[in-house]
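**Paired protein data**
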Amino acid sequence: MWGVHDPGALKWLDPPPAQAFAQARDLLHRLKCLDDQGRITAHGKTIAGSGIHPRLAHMILEAEGIGNGFLACCMAVLLEENLDLPGCSHDPDLRTRLEILVSLQLSRDTGGRSSCRDDDAQRPGLQGMPEEIRSRAGAILAGSRRLARKLKIREQSIDPEKAGITLSLGFPERVARRRGPLSYVMASGSGAHFRNPALCQCMPTCWRLMWKAPWKCGDPSGSTHSGTGFGPSVGTTDGNP
């Protein structure tokens, strides 16, 4: 693929800030898109062709190796499109959205596609689910399947309990440890806190991954209202790491 190592070699109307360019290059290196010489890797070429944010594409490709590739596709669609399901905007746990997708994934027609027909409301897991939620969830699931086909990811059962470990593949600096009743410190050193005590209490684990947190690096006291818990599957408990 065409490119230069030094942005100064190009003629710009407004050159990119040196610090921002260095941070972007460092991120791409950490995501295995660039090698130690700054050249694009095979992994990087696949990510470049994905059409989504490099963090999300990297998460999907890495997750496929541990059997969570389709789960990662679902989360990528939710995050890339900034989509949410009706009634979930005040729920901080990403797993709530994934559980709805699980119900829809389990409801299949004879062609193997998730269906949103009127009789779906009588199927297990979909009883009582409002049409607006079923329709939006169906669109998200369809988008996830398109993304999976593009990246040659196998569709597998969605396991919401693996959301935290899967997201950490693309956002390792967002893993956060509780330091107070409502506050957390992320691996990046930035702070994050829940504004509403009720939101924090619904996920009483010591470790979380903050999936809606400030993008600005170095913010000492960022505000967040969304995360997903980490459990024993990643070797952490409510005690010491």
